[in-house]
Specification:
By secondary structure, the protein is mainly alpha-helical. Helix content is 47%, strand content 2%.
Amino acid sequence: IAQKLTNTSGETKQWGYQANGNWFRDIHWIRGSGAQEFDTLIDPKTSQFNQQPIVDIVQLVASDFYHSMGISPSPADLDAGSGGIEAGQSAMKYEGAWWFPRMVTPEMRDSGTAVDFDVVLMPKQQDENRPHRGWAEGVVMFSTAPTEPAWDLIKFMSGEEGQKIFSAISGRIPNNVDLIDTFWAPTVKENHGLSNTQAFITAFSNGVADVISGLPRTQYWNEVVKPVGWDPLIAGSASAADVLPAVDAGVQKLLDDYWASVS
C-alpha cells in the first residue's frame, strides 16, 4: 500500500509511510516479529538484537523504507520541512495520541491548516497479538519542592479534573479507565476528528514495555544503538546484518558494567 501511495516525481512529493527513525519508536515493529532485544524486559542481563527476525524487520523499517523501497521521507527531507504527515505529504505514520494536535485542532480547522486523519491498528506480523509499545507519562517534582503543595498538585493532576485538562489539551489517553469512554473518546472526536478511538484502546490492551533496567533507555540509545546501529542504517551505509552484532556487543558491555557495579 505504501509503495502505491508514494510519488516523489512531481514538484510536491508524496510518501506512503513516514518512518520514525529510531529504535524505541520502532519497538512495535520489532516485538511484532515475535522476538525482543533483551533476554528479559525487566532487569535484563543479555542483549539479543542480533536475531534473524529482528535483523529482518530492522533492515526494513530503518533502511529499506528510505532507500530500496523509497516509501519514506529521509531525515534531510523532514529537516527541510518536506514530507511530514502533518503537512499532508506522508500517508501513514505510527504515532500516539499526543500527535493529534499536530494534525487537527479547532483553530487549525478555522485557519485551513488541518490535515484530516484517522487511525487503524498496526498490521499483523509474526506475533498475531499485535504487541504495541506501551507508554505512560509521569510527574516529576524537584526534591526541593515543598512536600505538601507538591503532593497536592500531583493528586490534582492525576485526579479526574486534572486528567480532563491534560487530555483535552494534549489528546493523550487519561489514566482513569472510565474517562476513556466518557470523556477522552468524545473529546478527541470533537477536537481532532478521530472516529476509530477503539484502535487506541485495543493497542494499549496489548502494550509492552520497551525495557526497564538500572540503565536508562536513552543510555543504550545514545551510546550504542543510535551511533552503531540506526545512524548507518538510515544513511544506507550498512545493513542490519552488519550492525546488529556490534549493537549487541556494545549493549552487552553496558549491561555487564552495570551489573558489575551493583554486585
